[in-house]
Each structure stands twice: as structure tokens, then as C-alpha cells.
Amino acid sequence: QVQVVESGGGLVQAGGSLRLSCVASGRTFNIRAVGWFRQAPGKEREFVGGIRWSDDRTYVADSAKGRFTISRDSAKNTVYLQMNSLKAEDTAIYYCAGNNEYCSTYGCFAVKHNYAYWGQGTQVTVSS
After folding, report:
1. Closest CA to 102 of 52, 58, 61
2. Between the CA atoms of 21, 84, 57 and 98, what dihedral angle is there, to the nearest 10 degrees?
3. Residue 30: pLDDT band by 50, 70, 90 thresholds?
4. How far are the Cα atoms of 5, 54, 55, 90, 105 from residue 121, in angstroms, in the given order?
5. What is the mean pLDDT of the chain?
6. How far apart are CA 49 and CA 125, in angstroms?
7. Rounded distance, CA 96 to CA 109, Å?
8. C-alpha torsion 112→113→114→118, nearest 10
9. Are 1 and 70 in contact, with CB atoms under 8 Å apart?
């Protein structure tokens, strides 16, 4: 099995930055990609961005483009979500998820049902 654990959430003022981490453990050789999702109160869980294991290709949702970047430290089995210029509407619980299938398109990355392994989430609150 694979376990993923997020950390790094917190309270930040609008315009500030946070870096979330997602550490994978267990049978990490099963992972083909890691995605970041978020869920605000009363809303559906939505895709934020993802990274493909084979070539570190990243995909980022329009709402995050130019502000969020995703990177990976393969030696630590860790994926980072760097969030800059945060807005109040970025407030949500952020989840990382592991995908054991190969994805070659944004559409594949964005579908939460394609992910088999989910973390417990980390709260990000942006005050305006």
C-alpha cells in the first residue's frame, strides 16, 4: 500500500505564501503521479495541480496558474505545492493524492476518481 501525508498548512494573510508538502511512503514504486486538490466548505473537491513521476511534467489549474508551482524531491518521495500571492478564495482543506495510473493529459490529472491514495488534508486559511 501507499500512504501520503500532507503538511504545511496554516493561517496566512492575503498576498502571502505557504509551501505544502506531501510525503509518500510504503509501495511508492506504484505511484505514477501526485495531484493536489482542495475543498472549501460547501464546495466540491477541485483539482489544483499535479506532477507526473516519470518526467516531472506539471499541470496546474487555471485558478492557480502564475501563483502556484509544484515540484518534487524524488530522493525524499516528497511533492511540494508552493503557493504565492494567496487570496481569501484559496481558503480550503488541501489534499494530496497518489495515482497509480499513467496520465498524459490535464483531463486525466484533474479527475479525482483516478487517484487511489489520499491524505487526510491540511487546512489553509487566507485572511483578507
Report:
1. 52
2. 30
3. confident
4. 8, 25, 26, 14, 25
5. 96
6. 19
7. 12
8. 70
9. no
Cβ neighbours, 10 Å, residue 89: 11
- The SS3 assignment for 7 reads strand
What are φ and ψ of residue 110, in 5° steps?
-80, -10
Cell of 84: 504565492
Q: Which residues of 2-41 are buried (b: 16+ CB within 10 A; e: fewer)?
A: bebebebbeebeeeeebebbbbbeeebeebebbbbbbeee
87: nearest Cα among 128, 121, 47: 128
Under 8 Å between Cβ of 6 and 19 = no
Q: Band of the pLDDT at 2, cuts 50, 70, 90?
A: very high
Distance of alpha carbon 96 from alpha carbon 119, whole angstroms: 6
Provide Rg for the chain, Cα atoms: 13
